[in-house]
Amino acid sequence: MAAQISIDHIQSLGGVPRTFAAGNIICDYESDAPRLLFIQEGWAASSKMMPNGTRIVTEFVLRGDMVSTPLTVLSRETVQAITNVSVIVFPDFTSLPKIEAPASFYRVVLTELMRRQARMSEGLANIGRRDAMERTGYLLLELATRIGASRQHRNSDGFDCPLTQADIGDAVGLSTVHINRVLRDLREAGLLSFRNGVVAFLDRQRLMELVDFDESYFDKHVM
């Protein structure tokens, strides 16, 4: 199971709870309040819109992940709820003259920034160096690892996945038509299936070998 920030620990540090309905914007590059948001429950997507109207999903934001509004502004991204999302909101200490916070809070924030950098680096390598089937398989393996075994689908080697084919396509640089064909090829190859909101790994080990999936960058312990 991937290491994640302890939500119980984050809750113990205070913060303001807030919820966002599916489809609502959590923050975007026009946000003017510097905040740190830790995801308690739900799925969100961080994305950029290109001048031609194409959307690029830079990453999916899951339980335990942190969203920084100053980083969102700098990268000109929008974070939108895919499902109903609950968060814990803190001021961003890097943007304020002074804020009292336990040392463990600073450690959590810095560790999450490093984890996000690692995910972004892997995502760039995935799109740049793998073919369509490999990059799609890699993304779904990564999401399964980030969710962890305790949150996988109860009836299969897989997980409940609220993403649409368009969401997956926007994350791996493929059109909806192309991603539909890739998912069919993965199923026919006996590697995985994606139906009715469930990703089921038909042969996880063979898929991991095919895409050279290495989950070691998830292994760093986070309190």
UniProtKB/TrEMBL annotation:
<keyword id="KW-0804">Transcription</keyword>
<dbReference type="Pfam" id="PF00027">
    <property type="entry name" value="cNMP_binding"/>
</dbReference>
<dbReference type="InterPro" id="IPR036388">
    <property type="entry name" value="WH-like_DNA-bd_sf"/>
</dbReference>
<dbReference type="InterPro" id="IPR012318">
    <property type="entry name" value="HTH_CRP"/>
</dbReference>
<feature type="domain" description="HTH crp-type">
    <location>
        <begin position="130"/>
        <end position="205"/>
    </location>
</feature>
<keyword id="KW-0808">Transferase</keyword>
<dbReference type="InterPro" id="IPR018490">
    <property type="entry name" value="cNMP-bd_dom_sf"/>
</dbReference>
<keyword id="KW-0805">Transcription regulation</keyword>
<keyword id="KW-0238">DNA-binding</keyword>
<dbReference type="Pfam" id="PF13545">
    <property type="entry name" value="HTH_Crp_2"/>
</dbReference>
<dbReference type="GO" id="GO:0016301">
    <property type="term" value="F:kinase activity"/>
</dbReference>
<dbReference type="GO" id="GO:0003677">
    <property type="term" value="F:DNA binding"/>
</dbReference>
<dbReference type="InterPro" id="IPR000595">
    <property type="entry name" value="cNMP-bd_dom"/>
</dbReference>
<keyword id="KW-0418">Kinase</keyword>
<protein>
    <submittedName>
        <fullName>cAMP-binding domain of CRP or a regulatory subunit of cAMP-dependent protein kinases</fullName>
    </submittedName>
</protein>
<dbReference type="GO" id="GO:0006355">
    <property type="term" value="P:regulation of DNA-templated transcription"/>
</dbReference>
<dbReference type="InterPro" id="IPR014710">
    <property type="entry name" value="RmlC-like_jellyroll"/>
</dbReference>
<dbReference type="InterPro" id="IPR036390">
    <property type="entry name" value="WH_DNA-bd_sf"/>
</dbReference>
